[in-house]
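S2.1 Query sequence (Transport permease protein)
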Amino acid sequence: MGLFWLENRTMLLRWWYRLRREPLTLLSTVLQPVLWLLLFGHLLARMAAGDVPGGDYLTFMTAGAMVMTVFNGAINGGVELLFDRETGFLQRLMAAPIRRLSIVTSRFAYIVAVTAVQNLLIALTAYLLGVRFATGLAGVLAALGIGGLFGAGVATLSIALAFAVRRHPEFFTITAFLSLPLLFLSSALAPLDLMPAWMRWLARLNPMTYAIEATRALVLYGWDARVAGTMLAGLLAFDLLALLVAARVLRRGLA
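Output structure tokens follow.
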């Protein structure tokens, strides 16, 4: 166990040093989630005033911005492993005395950690703009946990995709094709009640909706056991499905 932790810590430091050497990427990682909240929150504030739960669109949008940030970070999180495959570094790494599982788990942990930091920045920005979690600081921490649970499934699928495709253009084509439909077929930007029936039906199948609704309840209403239970069931089922898919792909990719 100690060796496994050492391998993961070393690989995590590698990802961190790579990010630190790319100041524009680091700046984008920090600022992008805040821009999500500022641009969407203020762009649609007047148009949606009074039509959203809570009455204030920025408050309504905070949960959507947090979960969208997790999704965007996690869905592209596996691409670094694909770059390692393309440059041949992954093959050299697999020849080293290191567990192959550590290569995957360290990347997974890095993605979840970065998205958690981004979500913390969104919560802080929202607070400075006057948004208050009805559940207080404990609710912020719970929202980070929800983001982690949702991001775990998305990151797992992203890592699996990195081993399933041959070149990074395929990776970006697939993720770009999926991102916008999944975003609009969720309650990130609009309440489920305002959607057309067919979109509402599809949105209820989207795991992003479960994460958003549970986070939104923490922001707007307070603790809700029914919403939390539904979210847990939905996201755990999603994570399990993602794990099964990834296990099948990685068994072949890391062989």
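Residues 1-254 form one domain. The chain has a mean pLDDT of 87.
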